[in-house]
Amino acid sequence: MTGKLNGSCFYNLSYFYLDCAVNTWRSSCGTMPERLTEMLMDTWTPLIILWITVLPSICMAPMNQSQVLPSGSSTGLKRLTEEQRVLNRSKRGWVWNQMFVLEEFSGPEPILVGRLHTDLDPGSSKIKYILSGDGAGTIFVINDKTGDIHAMKRLDREEKAEYTLTAQAVDRDTNKPLEPPSEFIIKVQDINDNPPEFVDGPYHATVPEMSIVGTFVTKVTATDADDPVYGNSAKLVYSILEGQPYFSIEPHTAIIKTALPNMDREAKEEYFVVIQAKDMGGHMGGLSGTTTVTITLTDVNDNPPKFAQSLYHFSVMEDVALGEPIGRVKANDLDIGENAKSSYDIIEGDGMDIFEITTDAQTQDGIIRVRKPLDFETKKSYTLKVEAANIHIDPRFISGGPFKDTATVKIVVEDADEPPVFSSPTYLLEVHENAAINAVIGQVTAHDPDASSSPIRFSIDRHTDLERQFNINAEDGRITLATPLDRETNTWHNITIVATETRNHSQVSRVPVAIKVLDVNDNAPEFASEHEAFLCENGKPGQVIQIVSAVDKDDPKNGHYFLYSLLPEMVNNPNFTIKKNEGCRAPDRFPLSSALSQMSSIKSSFDRTGQPDE
């Protein structure tokens, strides 16, 4: 490679050799397919560049410039003329201020990059070539006599792609410049020494199950540190090494899509896909890199709930508390999350008003509970039909429905040892206050509701009958009087009767009994107060001297009616008379604590002379 140092004019012959090689291949191949041509270029281009690099430098110059040839060489002129003709013929668009060196080349000798030459050099040793700039003296060394530039170190294009240097020809004796400095570039020619890399891998992606073919999954990206402009060293093609036939990848965009329809998550949820990126356009000899993509199928609601069994049996004690669960049913759904949620309902049966079913949010079980009291003696079994239905329905799969299922539930009510049941929730009894001791006041009855029908024993809760005024027959529940009664002392007695099963003393029931004491006329009238009357001597006959009244502790139904009279020893006394006040009658009924009186007036029978009134 020879460059002419004249007004900063340099040129490079690498393209000439490449052009010749390509033209030669094309002419020899004739109608060779374009892809095969590219493959040959990719294979031979690095070898040709290497060949050019190690060739001896060739001195060339434009036709309108003089060029010093080796002395006594007629073949040199012929060769120069031919090369000039080739350069003039070329239409490759020459870059005159660039040189090239192949990267990663290492050999026993330094690599010749090119030669600098000036028209002022007559072939003597009076001209000295000087090189300065990037890497001058360390990476690149120039022979100051011949102008040959050598690369002294192994170069890596990925570290530094080009070097800018300045060349100058000076007089060796005086060091005076013979031409102005000329700047040129040495470009490091790329070779395919870097494999593609997936810097973001490994990848994870998701796609809904049952997706159609061609559904987008994800996109991967590989990078190649080689030169993307020169050749195909960085031209990547993607392919799948593992993961077929489920997924496909577009070779140039690296977009991964589904390749099979109706992939079912319930059959297989996760796929491990290996993606390869190969440079050199995927041709033979290219470098490659791989990454993994873990693809997970996400769930859609494509499965209905299904009961684990078609018939469930449960038993429950008749005395179970309301709201207590008596059993669970389960409708399994192969889907997950929201798609697996179901609601339960009782849709048929003879116990729709007796039982209810709710959904356990954690386990998705159907919980059957009691809504109303059970009675073994009334109904011993129930049959229900329950339904489980998906809450969230996917319209895309509605044709595959129905998304629900049913099951039968049989519930057996078991007999519980229940306490005795009285014939009435309360009892009201009446007894006259003069009733005889051991007289029967009334009777309570109770029975065992269980099928075993245990005998019942009765007793009085003595905390409610501290004076032990009553007794009860333990066998038949007859209540009798134990001590005399007095209505005027206590009109009501409230006691509690206890019924106990003889076979199980823990089964006990209680009932309140109210006893009313009825009145009898067992109390004489009494004057309301003591009276002392005074009469003036001039009192008139018929004058009221005193009004007296009486009370009675008894409580006759029609009220009190008293008869007043003077004492026997006063009956024949003509001076005084007693007379009942008409219209002063006590009401028929009145409270126990009160007593009304009938009043009578005592009148005088004396006249002014002191004689009794006739």
Automatic annotation (TrEMBL):
UniProt domain Cadherin: residue ranges: 118-198, 199-307, 308-422, 423-527, 527-583
GO BP, sorted A to Z: adherens junction organization; calcium-dependent cell-cell adhesion via plasma membrane cell adhesion molecules; cell migration; cell morphogenesis; cell-cell adhesion mediated by cadherin; cell-cell junction assembly; homophilic cell adhesion via plasma membrane adhesion molecules
Highest taxon listed in the record's lineage: Eukaryota
Q: Taking the first listed entry, what is the main subcellular location of this protein, grouped into a coarse class?
A: membrane
Which keywords does this chain's UniProt record carry? Calcium, Cell adhesion, Cell membrane, Glycoprotein, Membrane, Metal-binding, Repeat, Signal, Transmembrane, Transmembrane helix
How does this protein lie in the membrane?
Single-pass type I membrane protein
Localization per Swiss-Prot or TrEMBL? Cell membrane
Q: Any keyword Nucleotide-binding?
A: no
Q: Name one Pfam family in it.
A: Cadherin
The stretch of residues making up the signal peptide is none
Q: Does the keyword Cell cycle apply?
A: no
| MF-aspect GO terms | beta-catenin binding; cadherin binding; calcium ion binding
Sorted alphabetically, the Gene Ontology cellular component annotations on this record are: adherens junction; axon terminus; catenin complex; synaptic cleft
This protein's name:
Cadherin 8
